[in-house]
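Supplementary Methods, section 5.1.

A reviewer requested that the exact input to the structure prediction be made available. We therefore reproduce it here, unchanged from the version used in the analyses.
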Amino acid sequence: MGLYVTELRLADFRSFERLVVRPSSGVTVFVGANAAGKTNTVEALQLLTAGQSFRRPTPSQLVREGAESARIDARLEGDGRVVDVRCDVAPGKRRFSRNGKRIQASEMPESLMSVLFTPDDLAIVKRGAAVRRAELDDFGCQANRGYANVLTTYQRSVEQRNRLLKEEVVDTSLLAAWDASVALGGATLLAARLRLFSRLAEKVGAVYATVSGGERLSCSYVCTLGEDLDDLSRDELRDLFLERLEAARADDLRRGQTTAGPHRDDVVFSIEGRDARAYGSQGQQRSVALALKMAEVELAAEILGSTPLLLLDDVMSELDEARREAAMGFVSGGIQTVITTTNLGYFSPALLDSAEVVSFGDK
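The structure derived from this sequence is encoded token-by-token as follows.
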């Protein structure tokens, strides 16, 4: 199983002056009314595992009103090890550390990775392509710190090229240099994305068949550079990208932006050969989202050799009974899981008997 959270301590974080929680190594249920602080606690766990928050807050937003700073600590145990991770927050800055040694946010998943599932994720099939790209990239950044470096480098190159494209008089020699930089960075990112997507897509299809009662789901990566790219080397992808940039140069100059590359790609889910975004029912689309999160847990365990922390924030109320049962059946397989809910009636007596239930009062 690897490491798991045995204790979480919050000080002046969000709505809490002080909070100590000791999660189970299995399922822990946070129950309470809305605005009681359940999601804030999930956010703290994500910060200490992913190094970032799904809310994308500024540091000041993490500090309790009236306080000067905040602190989040967690103890991780497992495999004969004890690891203490921490995040100190003050206006304008966040500092992460492991066993007292300062580290970068991107290094936090190396202790314990997490997979987060929120109600917004249930709409991942019908939302814009940027959401699906972000889902894939966020997972890749946690699973491999090198992925994060590649993504950041590429994004900066595209931003610089776009800035140049917007100038009244564009230096063509400088644009050619940025073309080369964008193509190299984009090819490196695309190669990493395609490898990751190939492994994830296979698992999503298998999990979906179980969740849906046998329906067939396929996942396709739609690339602005063309099709059938899996067998191309990074250098071949770079050359293809350069050709595409040169072909689109006039259009890019007119629009003032880079119109091709991994930052414009998409992921398409098809159920029995039909596009789930256009033809899938809401239930089918939600089953895809559920299968995607389950597949991420499985792939993370495969890549890292240890099971990630699964965070389910208020999704039980959005799932029907069959999908709730599928989710609970999945987490019963030895995955440390934290679930937030306003209603314990969504869970079976057997699950509640074996789970740690933590009640949250009004904050």
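DSSP finds eleven helices and 14 strands in the chain. These observations are discussed further in the main text.
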